[in-house]
Design goal:
Layout lengths: L13 H18 L16 H32 L5
Length: about 80
């Protein structure tokens, strides 16, 4: 069984902070109901309450994709790290 060094596993880097923000932002936006619990402005006859939530579906998808790509790049950089 190989031993994985524990030194770099829990390191907080700026990239990991950005990843966390990308993943947390949709939750914060949806849990803050007071910011979108209204009907105006309407978009194409759809009340704000509904189109705001549907917009966040698209935004959350994009943020999740960004977080995934950043995570892949971070993991690749760690494997190729300074020791190799």
């Amino acid at each position: 069984m190989s031993q994985v060094p524990e030194a770099g596993r829990g390191t907080v880097t700026p990239v990991r902070v950005v990843i966390a923000l990308c993943l947390v932002a949709p939750f914060v936006a949806m849990l803050w109901v007071g910011s979108y619990a209204k009907t105006d402005p309407e978009f194409a006859g759809i009340p704000f309450f509904y189109w705001y939530q549907m917009l966040w579906v698209v935004i959350a998808t994009a943020l999740t994709m960004i977080a995934y790509k950043l995570w892949q790049r971070d993991q690749r950089a760690r494997r190729e790290g300074p020791g190799r």
